[in-house]
């Protein structure tokens, strides 16, 4: 588009142009009067006479590879919704933000989930979300700005920090294995659910005295207290996979504290996706996904099961009370009396639906008009 200064010409009709310059920050093309850098003065299929799609337009100046550093991309950015956070002409906020960082973030992220607990992280209390998070993209989960972000403010080697950590230098420690980054009802913003030895200060149950070194490096250390747990793996389908070394319990559980049930080391989906990356791909790319997709343990057993896919109620998992109790009773028949002609196996919900995600409505495995039906019913 043209880079000519058309400010005076456009302002003849658009009186709001004068108000753009009353604010502290003015978008560079606006400051230069280059209205047609973004707008088509004649016609456009886009709202506001934008010359191209908003995402394409923004990236014509703001380089995508610079903004999106890494595999983790903020959802509105991934969807090209730049104007959800940024003003297109001018603003009183840095970065042409429509409002302050705190207000913008809490438009999507519920404030009670972030700082609704008794003890709140100081930066969270001040609304400084971007101290720890990159609003566009990052190489780290949670859009964290860099590894070791905690020690940007908390010097790991100080006497005070050592004192509350039994004399240990916390350099290189995984702070979030104990602390919530936002808020907690526990002093020191310790996470909600605490491993009993940790809560009782009995570090020597797992660690050598005065050291981070473990008493035992494999899962047998966990079995000293959780002996019965190993039996839950002895099933036809199991997460106790051959070839694993070390303490496989620590791949899913934290030995210190967690905001998740069963002391999971992270959110259910994040924990499972460490191995099930194909499911993560579905979750991010599919047009339709199961609304409870991220609550893996609502449908799957975590250790072992005699049912395929480790479903909590086998083929009846979908029809459990509180989910889809009427399924299989009034729609397409399923079960022993309905055999899939392709596999010769009894049909179940996943014969037609992909619970992980699909480009089709109702997470169907093919188009609902005819394509799905003719997979079995040849015409």
Tell me the structural class.
alpha+beta
Any idea how many domains?
A: 4
State the end-to-end distance.
53 Å
Characterize the quaternary organization of these chains: single chain
Mean pLDDT: 89
- Which parts are unreliable, with pLDDT below 50 for 5 consecutive residues or more? none
Helix content: 10-25%
Give the helices and strands as they follow along the chain.
HHEHHHEHEHHEHEHEEHHEEHHEEEH
Which word captures the global form? Answer: flat
Q: Cα-atom Rg, whole angstroms?
A: 27 Å
DSSP strand content: 5-15%
Strand order of the largest sheet: 1-3
Number of helices: 15
Largest sheet: 2 strands, antiparallel
Number of extended strands: 12
Please explain how this structure is put together.
- There is one protein chain.
- With 379 residues, this protein is an alpha+beta fold.
- The protein is 20% helix and 7% strand.
- It has 15 helices and twelve strands.
- The chain has helices at 7-11, 17-20, 28-31, 54-59, 64-67, 75-78, 101-108, 111-115, 122-125, 159-163, 196-199, 220-223, 268-273, 277-285, 349-352, and strands spanning 25-26, 72-73, 90-91, 119-120, 137-138, 183-184, 193-194, 237-238, 257-258, 304-305, 335-339, 346-347.
- The strands form six sheets. A two-stranded antiparallel ribbon has the order 1-3.
- The longest helix is centred in the last third of the chain and has 9 residues, at 277-285.
